[in-house]
Amino acid sequence: MTEKDRATEMERDTSGGGTVQEQSSAFLANVLDYGADPTGHMDSTEAIREACKKNKQVYFPQGTYQFDKLTISGSVTLCGAGDNATILKTSNLTENVLVFKDDGWHVKDMKFDAAADRTAGAYIFSGANYASVENVAFTRQYIGVDLDGSWSVNFVNISAFDGTPHEVSPGGAIIRLGENAYTGPVNIRGLTAKPSASTLQPSSGITMRYVDVVSISDALIIWHKKDVVVAPKNRQFAALIEITNSCFDTAENGIYIEPSGGARVLRCGVSNTWFGAHSSDAAVINGADGVVTGLQFSNCMFLANGGNGVTVEGQGVDGLYFTNSFSGGNLGSGLVIKEGAQNIAWNGGVIGACHELNGNVGYGYEIEEGCSGSISLSDLRGNTAGICNDPLVKMKAFGNTVE
User: Which residue, 225, 278, 309, 401, is most buried by CB atoms nearer than 10 A?
Assistant: First the structure.
């Protein structure tokens, strides 16, 4: 459709005809007018570049658009006809594909694909602010979206399929936040990620390093090496991460928290979330080379894992709180505290047999010399090795239900 035809279309009364997408697309610059090929046979890089250079809102009708990479300036919105209808397919396998330089960018209603598995770079990279990614799908991604230094970014209804396997190129993720620069606030609402086979899992679902005020809700991540990673480095910190109403399943670890080089993880909360069926420990909190403090897990389930339900380790861990949570059916122990971790409190819930599962094959809880914590008002029945390995009473225990 030419600009003149589109103007004519906009003047018509559309109240009775056409879909919402068809009506709204009349207000956007159409990449077909700039020579883009929706069949995917010809390269459309220059056509897309021209459309983005001359317009603030760019529409991709149904089709597959082959291109290399683009750097986009200005407050530009890229809009497709739906994540099953519009596919942006890159031939570039190692660099950032879309780089947004300026504030106010948005991407919605499209799918990203590549000619083969990508081994580096992100489909979308930005350090700019006031942006959004909505109704977008990724496949064959190394990293889907990489934000480094951004403020006020919203993710809504993101899907991810087969990614670059960790064994092919480690370090990949669906979403990576704050790799080097202070990033946040970021809101992720609705992320569904499941490859077609366990061998097609990238290194993580979501990786967070130098972040502040990150909200994650309604996330379902399956078959990723580590579903959620919180790993600030050097002088970075990760603070005020809130995860709720989510499901992390069938990975190596559900959540892996490991600051390094003296970095800090602090004041974070996880609630109403499942961590189950992982090949190793469901949750690992490691403060051997950094600080972890003020974390709270409420109404969480650490069930049927190949290792421990929860492992807390390192002298930098001081102050973790588990409230009304469940850890059972694990091939290891329900809760392990070691290597100097301090003030680990488990209040209410179950560490043992629960929800039609047997107790843990190991102990209910294990604690090493030099660590401290408390177990209170919890059901500790049904663990094969027994309630605990704590003859020296290093763990304060009161009000619990025992054998």
Answer: 309
Please name which of 280, 226, 235 lies closest in space to residue 255, comparing C-alpha atoms: 226
Half-sphere exposure of 46 (CA within 13 A, CB side): 3
Q: Architecture of 54-398 per CATH?
A: 3 Solenoid (2.160)
Q: Beta partners for 64? A: 39, 87
pLDDT at 142: 97
**How sure is the predictor about 222, in pLDDT bands with cuts at 50, 70 and 90?**
very high
Strand partners, 133: 107, 155
pLDDT per residue over 385-396, tens digit each? 999 999 888 999
Quick check: 301 pLDDT over 50? yes
Write out pLDDT tens, residues 229-264.
999 999 899 999 999 999 999 999 999 999 999 999
C-beta of residue 289 within 8 angstroms of C-beta of residue 257: no
One-letter amino acid at 252 equals: E
CB-CB contact of 110 with 87 (8 Å): yes
> Letter for the amino acid at 333?
S
- CA–CA gap between residue 302 and residue 300 (Å, rounded): 7
Do 86 and 114 form a contact (C-beta atoms < 8 A)? no
Q: What are phi and psi of 52, to 5 degrees?
A: -75, -30
Q: Which of 174, 272, 300 is nearest to 285 (CA)?
A: 300
Angle made by CA atoms 278, 284, 289, in degrees to the nearest 5: 150
Positive or negative: CA dihedral 81, 84, 85, 88: positive
352 in helix, strand or coil? coil
What's the 3-state SS for 189-208? EEEEECCCCHHHCCCEEEEE
Peptide bond into 202 cis (omega under 30): no
Q: Which amino acid is at 381?
A: R
Q: Give the number of other CB atoms < 10 A from CB of residue 51.
A: 25
Q: How far apart are CA 85 and CA 173, in angstroms?
A: 24
pTM of the model: 0.93
The single-letter code of the amino acid at 219 is A
